[in-house]
Design brief:
Distance between the termini: 52 Å
Order of helices and strands: HHHHHHHHHHHHHHHHHHHHHEHEEHEHEH
Shape: globular
Strand order of the largest sheet: 2-1-3-5-4
Structural class: mainly alpha
Radius of gyration: 25 Å
Largest sheet: 5 strands, mixed
Number of helices: 25
């Protein structure tokens, strides 16, 4: 059956009992992945990015330098519900990724796919490296991934039903997406281009499309106002980070990593088939442009490979539908052989990536394998020890110095660790100029004794008076990460050489 017939299987009769069984299968796949995360997310420690989000969550605002407010808001709720439980605080990410799996399968159903297509799409997404990772930490990328998938699903419902009221749901999610991660702008370009370049342009005359636009603007407006009040600081941050990433080669290999990071290599033929299927379908061609336009923008703009990861579930959904139709035309023996071979390879690849991305073990060879191959897991090691070392240095000071001590940190991981883990040791709030922490200023009156973390001896002597080496920053597991490698020393110093207001003006940093 040709996809030029608008994927006629989307017109198949609905059989409620069969659909219910299909839904149970999708929920089962999502539940298995969620359970895996729930059983393992309490190992190791918080990632440096998570510590930044938690620190920002204690100072809620309509915007933050590195991201919009949605993710800190979720973690503020998480803190109130679960305290500092890693499993609890990561629960929202687990739920988000479970929904991604379910809606990827449901997208295949809306495109006319049967149980095989739905399960195939859901499994391909569930064991994709990027999707597996998104359930291990709370990051704004996790929720951004969900919004992209849900928008694609609602677009499919819009184009299938021709009910323009779906624009309200689409507009709402675009607005929430902008409150989550600014890369939603690239996806929005794809949506706009998809409307203009296909027969979906007829919706330009619909009041529902413009109501959806108004909703998206209204939802994003508080953060936009915050940006205006702060001189669009996030734009300057993103320019700085992008220049750093390109200079360090983090944007290299963009196209190759689409083949093994955003999806598994074994599922590449499926998403390519899905892209072709959308291009050949007059009804659903809009979704092809929703992939191709962001792809082109990221290539030209030298984006990082994972930026496009959330666009693949919609391609896999269509690819799974096309594969199901093709394989059903084969005789029994080759059909069974292909199905078993595909799923065996898919699950084998998923097993390997699971061992790399998920902390399956707290000790032994599996842990060493994960730490060797996963830099993000290495960044979860040592934060408790850093805070404990700082507390011991504070306690070793003479009483007069202890009463007027401040803790100066040089990156957001250190700032988050001191702010989130420090209260159990009675440590003061960190003094940090990185990202949003700079807006929180320094204590009044300023401290006269400083414990300085995250700088070199030369950096400490350049900025502060009377510095001495007081301790070391590392971890008892001997894991090499940014803190143990780049910031091994802790100093005790006097006040800054410059007056505090001038020192603070020069202390602002992006990272």
């Amino acid at each position: 059956m040709s996809v030029t017939q608008d994927v006629r299987a989307d017109m198949r009769p609905t059989h409620r009992q069969s659909d219910n069984k299909d839904t149970f299968a999708l929920v089962g796949i999502a539940g298995a992945i969620a359970l895996l995360h729930l059983l393992t997310n309490g190992r190791y420690g918080f990632h440096r990015d998570e510590l930044q989000v938690l620190a920002d969550a204690r100072h809620m605002d309509w915007g933050f330098v590195p991201y919009p407010p949605f993710t800190p808001l979720m973690e503020r709720i998480g803190l109130s519900l679960f305290g500092l439980s890693m499993v609890g605080l990561r629960l929202f990410s687990v739920i988000a990724q479970a929904l991604v799996v379910i809606y990827s399968g449901l997208a295949a159903r809306e495109l006319g796919g049967g149980r095989l297509a739905q399960v195939t799409a859901a499994l391909c997404v569930a064991v994709a490296p990027l999707a597996l990772f998104e359930g291990t930490e709370f990051q704004y990328t996790t929720f951004d991934y969900l919004w992209w998938v849900l928008i694609a699903y609602f677009v499919i419902r819009l184009l299938k039903s021709e009910d323009p009221r779906w624009w309200l749901a689409i507009g709402t999610l675009i607005g929430i997406g902008f409150e989550t991660k600014y890369t939603m702008g690239f996806y929005t370009c794809g949506i706009v281009g998809g409307v203009l370049l296909t027969q979906a342009r007829r919706y330009l005359l619909s009041k529902w499309l413009w109501a959806g636009v108004a909703l998206s603007v209204l939802i994003f407006l508080p953060n936009l106002i915050w940006q205006m009040k702060h001189d669009f600081i996030s734009l300057h941050f993103l320019q700085h980070i992008h220049k750093r990433d390109v200079g360090e080669g983090r944007a290299d290999g963009f196209l190759l990593q689409q083949l093994w990071l955003c999806t598994q290599a074994v599922s590449v033929p499926l998403w390519i088939a899905g892209l072709i299927g959308y291009l050949r379908s007059p009804r659903y061609r809009m979704l092809a442009w929703m992939y191709l336009i962001p792809l082109a923008l990221f290539i030209v703009g030298k984006g990082r490979s994972y930026y496009l990861g959330a666009a693949y579930p919609m391609l896999l959904a269509m690819g799974a539908v096309m594969a199901e139709r093709w394989i059903s035309s084969l005789s029994t023996a080759p059909r069974l052989a292909l199905k078993y071979a595909f799923f065996i390879l898919l699950l084998a690849g998923g097993t390997v990536m699971t061992a790399i991305l998920i902390p399956l073990a707290s000790t032994g060879p599996l842990k060493q394998f994960a730490l060797k191959n996963n830099g993000d897991l290495r960044e979860e090691i040592g934060w408790d020890e850093l805070v404990k070392n700082v507390a011991q240095i504070r306690d070793s000071l003479p009483p007069d110095q202890r009463e007027h001590v401040g803790i100066v940190v040089r990156n957001y991981g250190e700032a988050g660790a001191i702010e989130i883990l420090g209260p159990q040791y009675g440590l003061p709030r960190p003094i940090s100029g990185t990202n949003s922490a700079w807006y929180r200023g320094y204590p009044d009156p300023p401290p006269t004794t400083l414990i300085v973390v995250g700088t070199t001896r030369e950096g400490a002597d350049m900025r502060y008076t009377g510095c001495r080496l007081a301790g070391h920053n590392g971890n008892s597991q001997g894991v090499e990460n940014e803190e143990s490698r780049d910031h091994p020393d802790i100093f005790v110093c006097g006040p800054p050489k410059l007056p505090w207001p001038q020192y603070w003006k020069d202390f602002q940093a992006f990272g």
